[in-house]
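Design request, tokens follow.
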């Protein structure tokens, strides 16, 4: 999920999109400004099979070209067995336009890919 913005979390019961005292809100397709100097924020949760994922990569793709690629460190699974990651992909030097944010997870035997469309604005 591409994160649109985050706000301080209200006291009370934790919700699925809460992270380190913040409540994360999806972008819902709103454009992300490349001039803001902030990375493209994302969150994902993996529910590993018999073998936890060994590596993760995020890619920002425009057409057939990969504009940016970065490895994503994976924490150990939580007590429920899920691996939850909140991260950001730097946007410096990336031109505005229509892109796809792609996540690739691999456990060494198989690979899973998920993607989300994202618009970058000046």
């Amino acid at each position: 999920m591409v994160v649109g913005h985050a706000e301080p979390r209200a006291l009370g019961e934790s919700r699925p999109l809460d992270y380190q005292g913040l409540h994360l809100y999806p972008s819902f397709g709103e454009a992300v400004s490349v001039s803001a100097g902030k990375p493209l924020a994302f969150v994902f949760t993996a529910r590993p099979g018999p073998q936890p994922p060994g590596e993760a990569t995020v890619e920002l793709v425009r057409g057939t070209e990969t504009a940016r690629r970065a490895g994503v460190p994976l924490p150990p699974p939580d007590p429920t067995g899920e691996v939850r990651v909140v991260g950001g992909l730097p946007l410096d030097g990336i031109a505005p336009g229509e892109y796809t944010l792609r996540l690739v997870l691999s456990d060494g035997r198989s690979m899973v890919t998920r993607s989300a469309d994202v618009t970058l604005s000046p």
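Comment from the thread starter after seeing the answer: thanks! The mean pLDDT is 85.
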